[in-house]
Amino acid sequence: MNLFDAEVRPHIDGLRVTAEGIDAALGIDVDSAIDSATSTHVIAGIRPERLRITSDISAIRGQVTMVENLGSEELVHVQIGDAAPTAANRTVVARAPRPAGVRVGDAIGFAVDPTDIHLFDPATGLRLTWQRPPSDVPLGAHATAAVPVP
Fold first, then answer.
1. How far apart, in whole angstroms, are the C-alpha atoms of residue 13 and residue 80?
2. What pLDDT is recorded for position 129?
3. DSSP secondary structure, 78-132, as one string
4. What is the number of other CB atoms lying within 10 angstroms of the CB of residue 21?
5. With 0-12 CB in 10 A as exposed, 13-18 as middle and 19+ as buried, what is 121?
């Protein structure tokens, strides 16, 4: 699994997970967040087979550093973030059917479905999930939370 430090931030179209080179929708309305004015530090995870190579404006952007041929599939390694070496630089690996159609040095992006982004508590490593308030409680009367799932 590709793991990286990230922030969950409110946006006009809902909550997003962001980091250098990453800005992906989580498919969660801002109204359902605990505090829509702040961000929350998380560890985000995306499985390599869930990343889709795209040339469109993408959730994850970077430069191809290596392509591994595995026969019927290829592993595409992409450095995301600023081109200058920093602590925020990281490599994301995507698994794609062969031929993936990319070469070392190509600038590419990945699309990802919001349900394929996993969030973890950085202090405990436990998986987080967003829960809406019970349907009989008005949305503004009960805060929801990112809660650990055992």
1. 24
2. 79
3. EEES-SS--TT-EEEEEEEESP----TT-EEEEE--GGG-EEE-TTT--EEEE-P
4. 22
5. middle
* SS3 call for 31: helix
Residue written as token pair 């070392």: 104
pLDDT of the chain, 150 residues: tens digit per residue: 999 889 888 888 788 888 888 888 888 776 654 554 566 889 999 999 999 988 776 778 888 999 999 999 999 999 987 655 555 557 889 999 999 899 999 988 888 888 899 999 999 988 987 665 555 544 443 334 454 444
Residue 146 sits at φ, ψ, to 5 deg, of: -80, 115
Helix (H) or strand (E) holding 147: strand 146-149
SS3 68: strand
Contacts of 105 (CB under 8 A, 6+ apart): 63, 64
Of the candidates 20, 7, 5, which has an alpha carbon nearest to the alpha carbon of residue 82? Answer: 20
* Angle ∠(6,12,18) on CA atoms, nearest 5: 10
**Residue 44 and residue 35: Cα distance in Å, rounded?**
19
Question: How high is the pLDDT of residue 49?
Answer: 94
